[in-house]
Amino acid sequence: MEWTITKEDELQQIADTIAPHLSIGDVVALEGTLGVGKTTFVRTLVQKLLDKTVDVPSPTFTLLQSYDTPNFTLHHFDFYRLKSPEEAYEIGIEDAFTEGVSLIEWPDKIGSLLPKKHKTISFEIMDNGKRRIVAKGF
Length: 138
Hints:
Blueprint lengths: L1 E4 L5 H8 L8 E5 L6 H13 L13 E5 L4 E6 L8 H4 L2 H7 L1 E5 L13 E7 L5 E6 L2
Parallel strand pairs: 2-5, 2-6, 4-5
Antiparallel strand pairs: 1-7, 3-4, 6-7
C-alpha cells in the first residue's frame, strides 16, 4: 500500500486502512527521519482505534507509551535514545511483542531483536514537500 499526502489530516485515511489489519503479535517498524510524521501517524492511529481524541505524546523520553484499545494493547516504542539493543529488554519488549501490537520508531536501534516477520511503514519527505508513506506486510 502506498500513499502520497500533502496535509496532516490525510493521515486519517491511512489509519483507517491500517487499523483493521492489526492484531495481537504484530510488530510494525516505523521508518523515516526525524520530523517525517511517524509520531503524528501513531497519534492518528491510536485515536482511530480508541474512537476518541486522546493525548498521545511522543515516547522519546519515556521510550514507551501503551494504550488499551478494545481489541489489544498498543505499545508505541521510540528507540531513538537507545544506546544498545539490550536496553529494550528493560522496558518489556518481549512481552509487548507477544501480548499486544507494537509500533516501533527507530527500529534499527534494536537490531536482531526486531522480529523477522514484522510489518513496515516507511515515511519519506519528497522534494516537492509531499510525504510518501509505504506500508508493507499488511
